[in-house]
Amino acid sequence: MAIGNLDKAIDEFVLNRMNDIGMNQPDSLSEAFANFKNAAKALRDSLPDELLPLFRECENAFSIFDAEIQETFYRAGFADAVRLRSILTEEE
Predict the structure, then answer these.
(1) How many structural domains compose the chain?
(2) pLDDT (tens digit, 9 = 90+) per residue, 22-75?
């Protein structure tokens, strides 16, 4: 498989896995996210109007940061799985 095809396959795998987890989150993750949303709402509701654009900017930055973290860990996990498989294959 050419490197470009491998990269594309990894991209598709990571995206599908992220979507799977997003649809079937563990309860602890759902609870943590609900707590975050409640705290963010309480903060937003207590801010004066002139600070709301800054709050939205922080929300957007956090969303991008969260997505990057998820993708980084999925890619690292995938790379570890490929490495483990090659080690096990060499030992056989």
Answers:
(1) 1
(2) 777 788 888 998 999 999 999 999 999 999 999 999 999 999 998 898 888 877
Domain residue limits at 70 = 3-91
In order, the DSSP letters of 48-89 are -GGGHHHHHHHHHHHHHHHHHHHHHHHHHHHHHHHHHHHHHH
Q: List, in order, residues 6 or more apart from 70 with CB less than 8 Å away.
A: 18
- pTM confidence score: 0.61
C-alpha to C-alpha distances, 64 to 5, 22, 60, 71, 90, nearest whole angstrom? 26, 15, 6, 11, 39
The kind and range of the H/E element at 1 are none
